[in-house]
Amino acid sequence: MGWLGLDDTDSLKEGCTTYSFHLLLESLPSSVTVLSPRLVRLWPFAQQRTRGNAAVAVELLVEDESELLHYLEGFWNDHLLSAKGKMSPSEHDDREQYPADPGMVWFSSEQPNEEFYTMAVQSEVHLNQVPTANRSWGGQGRIGATAAVAWRQKQCTWEAIAWREPIRHGLLERTVCEQTLSRVDSMPSTFLSRDPRKGTGLVAPRGPCPVLFGVRARDSTSALEAGNKLLAAESTESTIGMRVFTTNQATDDHLSHSQKATVTHVEILSRGNCVITTESDTWLAFAESGSLKILAQWLHPGDVIEGYGLSPEFGVVHLEKLRVLSAYPDQQRPMCDECSVRMKSMGKNQGCRCPKCKQRTEDTWDAIARIPPFESWVQPPVDARRHLARPLEWEDSTDSSSFMGNQ
Ligand SMILES: [Zn+2]
Fold first, then answer.
1. CATH for 2-150 (3.40.50.10090, 3.30.70.2200, 1.10.540.10, 3.90.1490.10)
2. Residue 92 — pLDDT band, cuts 50, 70, 90?
3. Ligand 1 centroid vs 351 CA: distance in angstroms?
4. pTM of the entire structure?
């Protein structure tokens, strides 16, 4: 037995790593047994990442390793090498484009260290850090391919991916039965099939790639059942096949630990992006992050907050989860006992005076509790969330204790 990994075979009009992988697995010599394939999402800020930054791998039971390696060599030269140098479409127009640089790795018997997976999902990794495979092909794609092999599936979800007929590759429109999709969405184990706010499907990718749909579930049986339902629906377009992948999606594997901090300054930028300065870092809540942005904008200096996020650069955290641990109260001058009018300060250390009856008191403040708009964790809505992000509504996702009140 051994492990095969593949990454970065995406290109502009054709190709998608899962599709190349499916074709490869379909065509393996009959003496090879294919076990459950896996798809891993990696460090979202990787400089040379592909669309969605996903890599794939599979465990193979092999009778004749040299026969397999000979076959892989041929498949690489005939079908995968040609992706090199092609440009991948970007989800973000402002990002520098890198040509595809596919990579394939073969590990006989042993998976590489799990630490390599953790490194590749939580930070930028360079080619010279990649554990040595028993056989490898290509370039940059070896990073993701090796990380996909190194993953130990401590937490996982499943995704059934189906691919379109080659004649329809490159077309932007896809036909997946809407009625069946809402039935699939109501299955207890499926998730992120539809956007609850917009009422639109989330299973079909945008863009020209070969994928018709990917339907996600918290167990493999439901992923397969949901995928089969979509395939069987009359109005779903025909496909060349479907496979259920074990994935690291919705696991939070990209987040290490939470940070706690005290707010020193809050600035709301013109589009609604919110910059929270704390005593140690700058935390960013983006305009499209829904409840998270609303909570961020509500913050005042002195509030104690806890957050999870990624640091694409030192000292900056892009927030993915946020909660308020304690809120610094607002202050105002006390009311006059006689007139029920708010007293005014007479100046530093001069005490307060009622503007009506002129009665004086010491220099005091009344504290007014501030209650946050959300008393527990918040995260961006589904359409603004990473594939890796674990939904908060999954009960075991984070410590669920809530707002502890004012200081
Ligand atoms: Zn008074």
1. 3.30.70.2200
2. very low
3. 14
4. 0.88
359 CA to centre of ligand 1 in angstroms? 6
Helix (H, G, I), strand (E, B) or coil at 262: strand
What residues pair up with 162 in beta bridges, in sequence order? 213, 242
- What integer pLDDT is reported at residue 12 of this predicted model? 43
**Strands 344-345 and 352-353, how do they pair?**
antiparallel
Tell me the pLDDT tens digit for each residue of 34-54. Answer: 999 999 999 988 877 665 678
Distance from the alpha carbon of residue 353 to the mean position of ligand 1, in angstroms? 8
How far does residue 313's CA lie from ligand 1's centre (Å)? 56
Q: How far does residue 346's CA lie from ligand 1's centre (Å)?
A: 14
User: How many other CB atoms are found less than 10 A from the CB of residue 289?
Assistant: 25
CA of 332 to the centre of ligand 1 (A): 16
Checking phi first, is residue 350 left (phi over 0); if not, alpha (psi -120 to 50) or beta?
Answer: alpha
Domain residues of the chain, as ranges?
2-150, 157-247, 259-329+370-384
User: What separation in Å is there between the alpha carbon of 355 and the centre of ligand 1?
Assistant: 7
Centre of ligand 1 to C-alpha 345, Å, is 13
> Distance between CA 216 and CA 221 in Å, rounded?
11
* CA dist., res. 311 & res. 293, Å (int): 18
Q: How far lies 210's CA from each of 26, 48, 96, 171, 387, in Å? A: 16, 21, 24, 9, 19
Ligand 1 centroid, distance to 406 Cα (angstroms): 30
Q: Which two tokens stand for residue 47?
A: 């400089």
Helices (H), 27-154: 65-75, 114-122, 141-150
**What was the pLDDT predicted at 406?**
63
| CATH T-level assignment (fold) for domain 259-329+370-384 | OB fold (Dihydrolipoamide Acetyltransferase, E2P) (2.40.50)
End-to-end CA distance of the chain: 59
Expressed in angstroms and rounded, the spacing between residue 347 Cα and the centre of ligand 1 is: 18
Q: Quick one: CATH architecture of 157-247?
A: Alpha-Beta Complex (3.90)
CA of 328 to the centre of ligand 1 (A): 29
